[in-house]
Amino acid sequence: MDRRDFLKGAAAAAVTVGTSDLASAAEHFSSLDDEETKPLLASAPMLQNFAGTSVGVVFAVNGLASGYVLIGEQPDLRDARKVLCGGCRMADIDERVIQVRITGLKPATKYWYRIGADRIHYGGGYDMKVVGNEEDPRIYSFTTAGKELEGGFCVINDTHVRWNTIRAELDKIEALAPSCVIWNGDASNTEEDLENLVSIYLDHPLERKDYAACTPYLFCPGNHDFRGRANRHLERVWMYRQPEERAPRDWDLGRNFAVRLGDVALVGLDTAEDKLDTNPRFAGLFKSGPYREAQTAWLRDALAQPDIASAPFLVAFCHIPLFDDDPSHNPGDLFPADSDPRYSADFAYWQRTCARMWGPLLHEAGCQLLITAHMHKYRFDPSAPDRCWAQLVGGGHTMQEGDSFPTVIEGKVLGGRLRMTVHNIFSGKVQDVFEFNPRQI
Ligand SMILES: [Fe+2]
Ligand SMILES: [Fe+2]
After folding, report:
1. What beta strand segments (E) does 244-354 contain?
2. Å from CA of 350 to ligand 1 middle
3. How many angstroms does the Cα of residue 353 sit away from the middle of ligand 2?
4. Cα pseudo-dihedral 369, 373, 379, 381, rounded to 10
5. Angle value at C-alpha 287, between 281 and 291, nearest 5 degrees
6. What's the pLDDT band for 306 if we cut at 50, 70, 90?
7. I need a surface site. Which of 131, 304, 329, 332 has the fewest CB within 10 A?
């Protein structure tokens, strides 16, 4: 559905007003300026942080609103329940982004849903009114994660707001029809305003407005996704899971994931900034060190979860590589300011601190593959005797001849083996195919 059709559909959807509020609504609408007469729904929904029993539904609005999702297992939604945005305390209101976290779902189950929003007049704490409503005319569907869900996954990375690259990658993903997509970081550059984040993920210039409405996304932030004031609160656009979905110890780890997709366990980590917390350029405003340690405790537990531990294939994801055999490549732990004449650049080519914390855990668990990004240059590092996981590093974002071509990495279990296909998005050809045997469990 293109933007024009989507907006037309949303505008054509019934505008309903409670009878007791008719007078005030009429008064309100008579004073609408151009901004307020835009359709309230400003984007198709994006499915975020997909899991076995929950999913996030996020969409943009034009104007102060409270939103909801109608969701059920019947295609016509006759069994639908209404889930309001916000947590369990109160329904949220927001001028630009609505986030609805749906919990209590069944694993590997197909659901149908529709989004809607109430336009809110806010005159103060005792003066709040619903003055309009819009529902997206389209009913979308998705399937929750789970052991019984036989489907593939795709990985994209380092898109850096290059729309031509993203457009081509989404075309490939549409053709491959995966069960979920992992966006492996550096979706942004340095984003100072919320509006920039909205335009990257939700209300974007792509023709494929609904690219994430039926295909759920998981996100492993890259170093750029921490840069700029807006990115310091990325959760305003890329929602966290609900607190009740994680242990109290892990409340700040709202996007780490450990989900089962058929025979594959997918585990997502966040390598955070590519510069040290002590680098004076960042004024002490990052805490990547303790953040990585917190994820180590989470990872240990995640790998022991029965549904993860029993999966024949274990694939992990993070943005910055955890292995690099070039001794001139900065390992990201050069205290205090990342530079050293022995290394070729003052930023991490790979993350030795994370490698030391997470690498052995992945090795002990028999992880077959780690998929990373960050280098803007595709490569494959085979496993080694002390490291059973191989590493695939996703490509760059350059749609021209050279070695920075973009990739869509596809994973699928075929004939009892995990087959990874690396699609070169510039050439349109398959770059490489790798196959992995089930791990010993
Ligand atoms: Fe990047
Ligand atoms: Fe990066």
Report:
1. 257-261, 264-268, 313-317
2. 13
3. 16
4. -40
5. 145
6. very high
7. 304
Distance 439 CA to ligand 1 centre (A): 31
Q: At what angle do helices 288-304 and 352-364 cross, to 10 degrees?
A: 10
CA of 158 to the centre of ligand 2 (A): 7
Alpha-carbon span 238 to 307, nearest angstrom: 26
Instruction: Give the number of whichever ligand sits closest to the CA of residue 227.
Output: 2
99-139 pLDDT, tens digit each: 999 999 999 999 999 999 999 999 999 999 999 999 999 99
End-to-end CA distance of the chain: 45
Cα-to-centroid distance, 374 and ligand 1 (Å) = 5
Cα(90) to ligand 2 centroid in Å equals 37
3-state helix, strand, coil in the chain (%, to 5): 25, 25, 50
Ligand 2 centroid – CA 242 distance (Å): 27
State pLDDT tens for residues 145-184. 999 998 999 999 999 999 999 999 999 999 999 999 999 9
Q: What is the pTM of this model?
A: 0.92
CA 374–ligand 2 middle distance (angstroms): 4
